[in-house]
């Protein structure tokens, strides 16, 4: 299957997955830091 731009739909799907993985790798450490800060603030 091809889109109007001529790119394969599978390629677009793969790019979307790669972006999601990339975002997850970036977001995960910052999320851990936020959770630690959150519990640290609760304990005070």
Give descriptors for this structure:
44 residues; mainly alpha; 1 helix; rod-shaped
Description of the molecule:
The chain is mainly alpha-helical and 44 residues long. The chain has one domain (1-44). 80% of the residues lie in helices and 0% in strands. The protein has one helix and no strands. The chain has one helix spanning 9-43. The longest helix is centred in the middle third of the chain and has 35 residues, at 9-43. The chain crosses the membrane at residues 21-41. Keywords: Membrane, Transmembrane, Transmembrane helix.
What's the arrangement of secondary structure elements?
Blueprint: H1 9-43
Category from helices, strands and their pairing: mainly alpha
The averaged pLDDT comes out at 81
* Terminus-to-terminus distance: 57 Å
Q: What Rg do the Cα atoms give?
A: 18 Å
**Tertiary shape:** rod-shaped
Low-confidence stretches: none
Number of domains: 1
Share of helix, binned: over 70%
Number of strand segments: 0
Main β-sheet: number of strands, strand sense, barrel status?
none
Element order: H for helix, E for strand: H
Individual helix count: 1
How much of the sequence is in beta strands? under 5%
